[in-house]
């Protein structure tokens, strides 16, 4: 069977597709990945075929421009740059839909597994029923959960109003997809009503551990929570001597990372962290991968270690607890190694993971990056580090997560008509 995987976003958005692609490839299926060009090397590492989704405008360039704009102080010039980014984003979206149509036409797939950030597979699936499968790494988006509203509302309003928030969100999503089709001159006859009906019955895979988010028993069979997956690592990465020495020197280390997230003042955020850790003499490894955290010119090298990139599956087994932005992949990875967790959410689903961590007693509820101050975070960090119940619950959850084996069910769900 020929299977096309297509998604947009950050590396965290791409990783679940790569992991599932490897599973399908192992079973003898032909797997093609259509992502943005910046992820080509990851696809090659996983030994799958790569096709670029990049249109006339580079998404990476748009993200770089957004990063620079966020760091600037408020001004009329900044407002003007936001407007230009918005217009360029619309142009990119139209080009992307057209490029997706080209890819699917070229590949002629038997199945398409797509993310909620890609619009064309929904349009295509109208004429190819049963062939498109939505993959989501976060709950509270497409399928109603009685005790939780649609993701962006982030509140339990009660079952009736919660259901209304999902219907309202589906209305907006379907309108957006229909508009994207019209603006791209593709699927002009596809209207929002048809799209909304399709989204309600389309196959959906949630790549979330059932130990962390059990599947509601009132969901229909076309929507399933089928576990968290990671691709096989073939990296030649090895720890350097500085890292090895740091791990040997300390028994109870905190790891801090913001993944690919950025913020307005990374120097200030880093300094707040360091001041708190210094006060309580806590050893810390900072990951500065995307620039959301920045190493100062002068600091205590015996207490702090800064790294620019490090495999999570290596470092999480050596640390006590983790502070991060709250991406689905980072959340799952930390918990699989039994790490108590403090999330500093930046956007969208990260607030949901923050809530879930606190509800399950695996760590305190963290403040938003937009309200990040010493006062807001100091007591949270100390609680994370000293509350042994967090560690006990994290270790128990890790045991359950590592016992999950849903690969056969996942592949059967994808491949069945």
From TrEMBL:
Gene3D superfamilies on file: Glycogen Phosphorylase B
Domain Erythromycin biosynthesis protein CIII-like C-terminal: 307-408
UniProt-recorded Gene Ontology molecular function terms: hexosyltransferase activity; UDP-glycosyltransferase activity
Record lineage: Bacteria, Pseudomonadati, Bacteroidota, Saprospiria, Saprospirales
One GO term (biological process): vancomycin biosynthetic process
Secretion signal span: none
UniProt-recorded name of the protein: Glycosyltransferase
Matches recorded under InterPro entries: EryCIII-like_C (IPR010610), Glycosyltransferase_28 (IPR050426), GlycoTrans_28_N (IPR004276), UDP_glucos_trans (IPR002213)
Highest taxon in the source lineage: Bacteria
Domain Glycosyltransferase family 28 N-terminal, first and last residues per copy: 3-81
One Pfam family in the UniProt entry: Glyco_transf_28
CDD domains, A to Z: GT1_Gtf-like
């Amino acid at each position: 069977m020929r299977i096309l995987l297509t998604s947009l976003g950050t590396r965290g958005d791409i990783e679940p597709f790569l992991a599932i692609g490897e599973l399908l490839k192992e079973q003898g299926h032909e797997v093609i990945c259509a992502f943005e060009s910046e992820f080509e090397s990851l696809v090659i590492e996983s030994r799958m075929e790569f096709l670029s989704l990049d249109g006339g405008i580079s998404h990476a360039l748009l993200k770089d421009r957004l990063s620079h704009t966020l760091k600037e102080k408020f001004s009329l010039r900044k407002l003007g740059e936001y407007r230009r980014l918005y217009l360029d984003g619309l142009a990119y979206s139209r080009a992307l839909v057209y490029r997706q149509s080209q890819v699917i036409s070229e590949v002629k797939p038997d199945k398409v597994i797509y993310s909620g950030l890609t619009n064309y597979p929904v349009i295509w699936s109208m004429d190819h029923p049963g062939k498109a499968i939505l993959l989501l790494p976060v709950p509270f988006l497409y399928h109603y959960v009685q005790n939780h509203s649609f993701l962006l509302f982030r509140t339990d309003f009660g079952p009736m109003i919660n259901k209304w928030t999902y219907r309202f969100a589906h209305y907006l999503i379907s309108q957006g997809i229909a508009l994207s089709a019209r603006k791209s001159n593709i699927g002009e006859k596809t209207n929002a009503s048809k799209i909304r009906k399709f989204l309600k019955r389309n196959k959906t895979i949630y790549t979330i551990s059932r130990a962390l988010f059990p599947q509601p028993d009132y969901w229909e069979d076309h929507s399933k929570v089928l576990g968290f997956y990671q691709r096989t690592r073939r990296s030649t990465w090895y720890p350097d001597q500085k890292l090895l020495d740091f791990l040997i020197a300390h028994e109870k280390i905190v790891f801090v990372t913001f993944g690919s997230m950025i913020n307005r003042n990374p120097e200030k955020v880093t300094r707040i962290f360091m001041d708190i850790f210094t006060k309580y003499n806590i050893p810390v490894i900072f990951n500065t991968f995307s620039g959301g955290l920045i190493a100062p010119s002068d600091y205590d090298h015996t207490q702090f270690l800064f790294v620019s990139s490090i495999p999570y599956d290596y470092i999480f087994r050596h640390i006590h607890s983790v502070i991060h932005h709250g991406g689905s992949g980072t959340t799952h990875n930390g918990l699989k190694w039994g790490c108590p967790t403090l999330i500093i959410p930046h956007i969208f689903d990260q607030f949901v993971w923050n809530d879930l961590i606190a509800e399950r007693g695996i760590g305190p509820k963290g403040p938003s990056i937009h309200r990040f101050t010493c006062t807001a975070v100091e007591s949270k960090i100390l609680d994370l580090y000293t509350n042994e119940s967090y560690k006990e619950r994290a270790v128990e959850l890790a045991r359950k997560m590592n016992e999950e084996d849903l690969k056969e069910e996942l592949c059967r769900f994808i491949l069945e008509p």
